[in-house]
Amino acid sequence: MATTVSPPAEASTSKFNPKGGVAPLRAGQGSEFFWRRLHSLTGIVPVGAFLFEHIMISNSMVARGPVAYSNTVEFLGGLPFVFFLELFGIWIPIAFHGLYGFWIWYRGVPNLINYSWAGNWMYSLQRWTGGIAWFYILYHVATKRFMGVDLHEHPGASFGKMQESMQSDLILAFYIIGTLSACWHFGYGIWLFCAKWGIVTGERARKGLLVGCLGIALLMSAVGVRSLFAFRQWDPQPTDPAGAKQIQNATEEVPKRQ
User: Fold this and answer.
1) For residue 199, what are the contacts with CB-CB under 8 A and spacing of at least 6?
2) What mean pLDDT comes out for the span 36-47?
3) Is the pTM of this model over 0.85?
């Protein structure tokens, strides 16, 4: 009587099985390879570059006061073709990077309980911080860009508009969590980008790069959180068009709260 050969164990075809082990990682093939590379690239340029400028330059101006902050907003809002710059340089790349990132997260298997080495934790932390940062950005853009007074027309109201939100401890805490998540996601994302694209090779070089990338994340986090608290250091600033005009026309900085 002929014998039949049993198919391989279920563990060999599943993504993960504690007894069968973890299936080997495989690079994306065909169109998936292209989309994953594009996802990685957009995380650095333009999304990461915009985040770095937004935190380290634009938002840091809050430390100098409402007039300096509104001047920065006015300059950015007055750039040529600003609508197309925002659409193709910010909104579309952020939407693609975030949505495709959720798709990668959905298909991934971190296995933190069974395989709790540092790389696995970093993988999961990168996914969670990316998700938090994406919803934080959606909230920030919706409330500051598309609700209330138009900051492109009245940049003098920009300080007051943010300051108004920062008076709420709950919203401030949300902004802090969102800022920390975005900074970590970008900092560690630089390391992932360099490793994925073969820019840095060798164990020693990658460890050194990792330290540098985490340093970038910590620096951006410190500047970002400091900027959020700085909104509370001044007396309440105007958010109406008339008051915004006064801020724009001011020749001296508003004094700090005593």
Assistant:
1) 193
2) 94
3) no
